[in-house]
Amino acid sequence: SLDSSYVASQLNTAIDNYILTDLNPIVDRVKKTGDHNKTGVALVRAKRYKEAKAEFSKVNSIAALNNIANIYTIEQDYDNAMKTYQKVLAADPENKNAQTGLENLKNKLGL
After folding, report:
1. Per-residue pLDDT at 53
2. What is the 3-state secondary structure (H, E, C) of the chain?
3. What pTM does this model have?
4. Is 38 exposed, middle or buried (0-12, 13-18, 19+ CB in 10 A)?
5. Residue 37: is it exposed, middle or buried by C-beta count within 10 angstroms (0-12/13-18/19+)?
6. Mean pLDDT for the chain?
7. Digit-coded pLDDT (tens) for 20-74
8. What's the gap between Cα 94 and its chain centre?
């Protein structure tokens, strides 16, 4: 049988190659449009989280804040994720994305 760590490393290599050959050119194309939100989404897909947060920070919207909170969660920066979801809910108490994100985070942390 195949060694699972070998399979995992092959899969990770394939994903990295996909990001380099397919996603990074897309990021470059989207950046040229000047649409910070779309650029942020493309950067998240390419696992370029720090750059994605910077792009979303240029957009003054609830959706962008939610995206930043989601990235913090992916990065396991739970303190900033929680603060950012709470910031969204302070501005928009009925926001389902932030409610769900915060709920999932609290469950994950056993709060």
Report:
1. 96
2. CCCHHHHHHHHHHHHHHHHHHHHHHHHHHHHHHCCHHHHHHHHHHCCCHHHHHHHHHCCCCHHHHHHHHHHHHHCCCHHHHHHHHHHHHHHCCCCHHHHHHHHHHHHHHCC
3. 0.75
4. middle
5. middle
6. 87
7. 677 777 777 888 887 888 889 889 988 899 999 999 999 889 999 999 999 999 9
8. 22
